[in-house]
Amino acid sequence: MAVLSATEVARPSRGGRPRDPSRDGVIRAAILRLLAEVGYGALTMDAVAAEAGVGKATIYRRWRTKQDLVVDTISDLNRAEATPPDTGSVEGDLRAMMQQMVATITGPTGAATLSLLSTIPHQPALAEAFRNGPLAVWRQSFAEIWTRAEQRGEVRPGMADSIVAESTSALMVQRWLLTGDPVDEAYAEEVLTTVVLPLVRASAG
After folding, report:
1. Residue 121 gets which letter from DSSP?
2. What's the distance, CA 51 to chain centroid?
3. How far apart are alpha carbons 75 and 128 in whole angstroms?
4. What is the pLDDT of residues 7-52, one digit of tens each?
5. Is 108 helix (H, G, I), strand (E, B) or coil?
6. Which of 28, 72, 135, 183 is the most exposed, having the fewest neighbouring CB atoms within 10 Å of its CB?
7. Angle CA(151)–CA(152)–CA(158) in degrees, nearest 5?
8. What is the pTM of this model?
9. How far apart are the first and last CA of the chain?
């Protein structure tokens, strides 16, 4: 899942005095808002400090450069949103997970992600943070859903690495990134009931 709210989990400092973890959530939220509004190129450390309502020294104690700041933020994206649900059935789990995707896509994280997509190919550190952060988080969460479904006997072994599993998020991401059409819960439900679940049932037969 190529998607991308930042958590309040403190990450190791990149230099300077120890950071105050209680401010991390506020600062990360400010970074996301600014990325969505002005993009990576126009983002400045001073603007982040002003948006977050903290002193510039607070920002520079956490990150030495703008790239450090954005890489660190990207690395933590989606860890709160992409929590694999356990409803007791693969259908319930997938429905809940796809609704979480909708909330992420339509929220501050989704807007910030869109603004970064044109920059990521030209910034290797950002690209790596994106792969190891939000992409890995969503991939792992969906894999947990498929593993539990396999243990319950609802799907065949190896479903997590199949095209069927990929279809769960592919259509939503395509619509979000390429068409600009709305990605809402109604669309997620349509994808689940008309595409994903029929494929799951067919592959299990």
Report:
1. G
2. 22
3. 9
4. 333 344 444 445 555 678 899 899 999 999 999 999 999 999 999 9
5. helix
6. 135
7. 45
8. 0.80
9. 27
